[in-house]
């Protein structure tokens, strides 16, 4: 198995190092990762500047291609020719922080996996579901196991798996749940301040998001200390509304 590993926290993140070490036991791993943190930048593509790719030695002695592009740029670069052959699987992560429910629309981690799905390569977006606790050991080992299973069983085209691992010791993990996306509750606030020249500036701030922990959702699974795996496709069509909209008298 040949795995492309990327992330949105930057090439030097502990989450990427942990994933690389665990994946290296089951696969050949190539790293193409951004040079700085792109968390919450969504799915985007650099179109207004050239991209640089540098060969970098990682803290653990491995090597990585580091780019000034976005997480999804990293995947595009890899699939379009930076790697000498097409990977069997793309793994994005392990992200420092959860990507649950509506988070996936902001997530650079999930965006990288989306880019892989668009490029016809199965992908995992993996996140450690905590804002303070950063022991990636269990999540990394699980990622390697899941990568092997996905490689063995394969995913339908255009699908990625969004994986959130609770940040608790192994003995407190209550198993795996296959889930649907839940509903995030954001507590966003607009903070208005003034710069030294009296001009206003704004921060989009607020506390960490909460969520509706409805049974069967990713938010529920993680709240129960279970690993959440949500199959994601990129078709955002609301099928239930198609018939209704067709009944609107919109014809000119
Ligand atoms: Mn991140």
CATH fold topology: Stationary-phase Survival Protein Sure Homolog, Chain: A
The class by helix and strand makeup works out as alpha/beta
| Small ligands present | manganese (II) ion
Strand order, largest beta sheet: 3-4-2-1-5-6-7-11-8
Helices, by number, come to: 6
Task: Give a structural overview.
By secondary structure, this protein is of the alpha/beta class. The protein has one domain (about 1-180, about 210-245): 3-Layer(aba) Sandwich (Stationary-phase Survival Protein Sure Homolog, Chain: A). It is about 25% helix and about 30% strand. The protein has 6 helices and 11 strands. A 9-stranded mixed β-sheet has the order 3-4-2-1-5-6-7-11-8, with helices on both faces. A two-stranded antiparallel ribbon has the order 9-10. The mean pLDDT is about 95. The structure holds manganese (II) ion.
Secondary-structure blueprint:
Blueprint: E1 2-6, H1 14-23, E2 28-34, E3 53-57, E4 63-67, H2 71-82, E5 89-96, H3 108-118, E6 123-129, H4 137-153, E7 159-166, E8 176-178, E9 183-194, E10 200-212, H5 218-223, E11 227-233, H6 239-247
Parallel strand pairs: 1-2, 1-5, 2-4, 5-6, 6-7, 8-11
Antiparallel strand pairs: 3-4, 7-11, 9-10
Manganese (II) ion (MN) is lined by residues 8-9, 39, 95-96, 108-109.
């Amino acid at each position: 198995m040949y795995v492309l590993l990327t992330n949105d926290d930057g090439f030097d993140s502990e989450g990427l190092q942990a994933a690389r070490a665990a994946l290296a036991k089951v696969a050949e791993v190539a790293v193409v990762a951004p040079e700085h943190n792109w968390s919450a930048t969504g799915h985007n593509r650099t179109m207004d500047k050239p991209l640089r790719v540098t060969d970098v030695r990682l803290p653990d002695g491995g090597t990585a291609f580091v780019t000034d592009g976005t997480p999804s740029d990293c995947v595009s670069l890899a699939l379009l020719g930076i790697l000498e052959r097409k990977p069997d699987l793309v793994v994005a992560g392990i992200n420092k922080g959860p990507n649950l429910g509506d988070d996936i629309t902001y997530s650079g981690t999930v965006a990288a996996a989306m880019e892989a799905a668009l490029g016809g390569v199965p992908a995992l977006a993996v996140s450690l579901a905590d804002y303070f606790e950063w022991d990636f050991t269990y999540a990394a080992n699980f990622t390697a196991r899941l990568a092997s299973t996905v490689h063995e069983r394969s995913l339908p085209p255009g699908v990625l798996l969004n994986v959130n691992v609770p940040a608790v010791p192994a003995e407190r993990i209550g198993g795996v749940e296959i889930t649907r996306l839940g509903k995030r509750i954001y507590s966003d606030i607009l903070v208005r301040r003034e710069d030294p020249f009296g001009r206003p500036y704004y921060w989009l701030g607020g506390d960490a998001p909460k969520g509706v922990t409805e049974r069967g959702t990713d938010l529920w699974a993680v709240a129960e200390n279970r690993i959440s795996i949500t199959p994601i496709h990129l078709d955002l069509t609301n099928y239930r509304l198609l018939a209704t909209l067709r009944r609107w008298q919109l014809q000119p």
